[in-house]
Amino acid sequence: MTDAVAAQESLEAVLKDEIIRMYQDVADNPEGEFHFFHGREAAELFEYDPAWLDRAPAGAVASFAGVGNPHLRSAIQPGETVLDLGSGAGLDAIIASWGAGASGNVIGVDLNPSMCLKAQAHAAASGSRMECHQGRMEDIPVPDRSVDVVISNGVVNLSFRKRKVIEELFRVLKPGGRLSITDIVSAKQLSQSIVNDPKLWAS
Amino acid sequence: MFRLLEESGFRQVRSVVVPHFRFRKAATQNSAEAYGVKAVLFTATRPTTI
């Protein structure tokens, strides 16, 4: 292993811990102040239907930490299988389950196993069907060609290996399947001081 | 991201800027603007023939 690879892996391990810590903090302390908008305030900012936010469990809404609204273009149909990559406390997965209906299937994947449990509890409380798997977005624990629609909200940007993540999304989608993801992009190369700072990268 | 989607085999790749995205804290927002940071909604399709 080269020094560069070892350094990258070390930084990724630190970043993984920081991502878990930060988004666990949002879920555990939704009344807290973060440098990004979260909860109902953020969801309304991104034009989530207020009726969805009234219908979803309060805990799922309060812990929402997305950067946009992937449902605007997801066009989920009854019976479809939906993957929510980085499902967090479950709000987007629950909304997706309303589109997929009883004949559909919603799969969440999250780095943090406790967030998976929280999302599944929120889904159950709303009468929604959702399974959640702990896993990394660079190695999605879902079979090849098994998903009709991928949604994701503010997650892919957290990876150092975005090409691998996109290849994984291609792998899990059925031919003709589609994705609708919101994410953060930068027009300029981030400085090395930002890249090397897990707190900044995770946010 | 747009280029990564196309290079990975996706077709009908589209993107639209999320109009109201911003950071809560002014210092973070100022830094984000300096780097041209935006939130974007991407859509794409896996071809039926692959």
Q: Which pair has the most extensive contact?
A: A-B, 40 and 32 residues
Domain unit count of chain B: 1
Which shape of chain B, going by the Cα principal axes?
A: elongated
CATH superfamily membership of chain A:
Vaccinia Virus protein VP39
Q: The CATH topology of chain A, please?
A: Rossmann fold
Task: Output mean pLDDT of chain A.
Answer: 89
Low-pLDDT residue intervals, each spanning 5 or more residues of chain A: none
User: Strand count, sense and closure of the main sheet of chain B?
Assistant: 2 strands, antiparallel
Q: Please count the helical segments of chain B.
A: 2
H-E order of chain B? HEHE
Strand adjacency order, main sheet of chain B = 1-2
- How many strand segments of chain A? 5
Range of helix content of chain B: 25-40%
Report the structural category of chain B: alpha+beta
Structure commentary:
The complex is a heterodimer of chains A (203) and B (50). Chain A is built from 10 helices and 5 strands. Chain A has helices at 3-28, 39-45, 50-55, 58-62, 71-74, 91-100, 113-125, 162-172, 192-195, 198-202; strands spanning 81-85, 105-110, 131-134, 147-153, 173-186. Chain A has a 5-stranded parallel β-sheet with strand order 3-2-1-4-5. In chain A, strand 1 (81-85), helix 6 and strand 2 form a beta-alpha-beta unit. Chain A is globular. The mean pLDDT of chain A is 89. Chain B is elongated and about 45 Å long. By secondary structure, chain B is an alpha+beta fold. A two-stranded antiparallel sheet of chain B has the order 1-2. The mean pLDDT of chain B is 91. Chains A and B meet through helix 8 and strand 5 of A and helix 1 and strand 2 of B. Strand 5 (173-186) of chain A pairs antiparallel with strand 2 (37-45) of chain B.
